[in-house]
Design goal:
The protein has helices at residues 27-40, 54-64, 84-98, 117-129, 143-150, 169-178, 197-206, 210-219, 233-240, 249-256; strands at residues 7-10, 13-16, 20-21, 44-46, 72-77, 103-108, 133-139, 155-161, 181-185, 224-226. By secondary structure, it is an alpha/beta fold. It has a single domain (7-256), classed as Alpha-Beta Barrel (TIM Barrel). The protein is globular and about 55 Å long.
């Protein structure tokens, strides 16, 4: 297995190529999952205030013994706490729960049409200027909203759902034009990837699983960093073991040809994805 030293650099931000996502991982499972992921070799950890697990994520980091400076740590401000005062308060509380003195990346979790984007991003940028986070960014922003955000503050990242069943070409084009990292959450499409026969067949040709094929496909795209969630040690190891093989042009063409109708995250507060 790779030692995991592959990184992605986009503009001013550099991240370990693959991260460990902690959505829906709670309590002791979150603590143990983060500790185990770091022992496997992951060096990018993603959480959010809304996940309710920041304290456990922080404990997992502490128990791993991995030096803080080797870890790229992301958390998120809730979309419904997007006023300037709430952003500053939430950032401080996240630092306290995580047990760290700074974040590597602070994201706005979803757009909020009720709070001016300028207010939210300027407050987040103040957190950055004060040294409490190295970078700021957004999450679940379609291309049009990302373009607006880039006019306000030094947005380094947009974290969005992205997997072989969802087209993000419009967003990717803008991100590459403006040096914005794309973090791909739900890269396995909540179980749809492992069950897909076309991806499984590609995997068989390489001695890999369908999930590993999907992660390799994402990693092959410039400026894209997938952050798969995994609830078991074996699956965390499998997701991390994606650096020792290469997809062919034929493989990629097959994946590109899959139906792109698979958005799984579309809550009532979601933006217009075509914005």
């Amino acid at each position: 297995m790779s030692n995991g030293d592959e990184t992605i650099k986009v503009g001013e931000i550099e991240v370990p190529a693959i991260g460990y996502g902690t959505w829906l991982v709670e309590g002791d499972d979150a603590r143990e999952g983060v500790r185990d992921a770091l022992e496997i070799g992951y060096r990018q950890i993603d959480t959010a205030r809304a996940y309710g697990n920041e304290r456990e994520v922080g404990r997992g980091i502490a128990e791993s013994g991995v030096p803080r400076e080797e870890i790229f740590l992301t958390t998120k401000v809730p979309y419904d706490e997007a006023t300037a005062a709430e952003v500053e308060r939430d950032a401080e509380q996240s630092l306290e729960r995580l047990g760290v003195d700074h974040l590597d990346l602070l994201l706005l979790h979803w757009p909020n049409a009720d709070v001016p984007l300028e207010e939210t991003l300027e407050a987040m940028n103040k957190v950055r200027e004060d040294g409490r986070t190295r970078h700021i960014g957004v999450s679940n922003f379609p291309a049009g909203l990302l373009r607006q955000a880039l006019e306000i503050a030094p947005v380094a990242c947009d974290q969005v759902e992205y997997h072989p069943f969802l087209d993000q070409s419009r967003l990717l084009e803008l991100a590459r034009e403006r040096d914005v990292l794309i973090t791909a959450y739900s890269p396995l499409a909540h179980g749809r990837v492992p069950d897909d026969p076309a991806l499984a067949q590609i995997g068989e040709r390489h001695g890999k699983t369908a999930g590993q094929v999907a992660l390799r496909w994402l990693l092959d795209q410039p400026g894209v960093s997938p952050i798969p969630k995994a609830s078991s040690h074996a699956r965390r190891e499998e997701n991390f073991d994606v650096f020792g093989f290469a997809l062919t042009d034929e493989d990629r063409a097959e994946i590109d040809g899959l139906a792109k109708d698979g958005r799984t995250a579309n809550p009532p507060w979601a933006p217009d994805w075509n914005a």
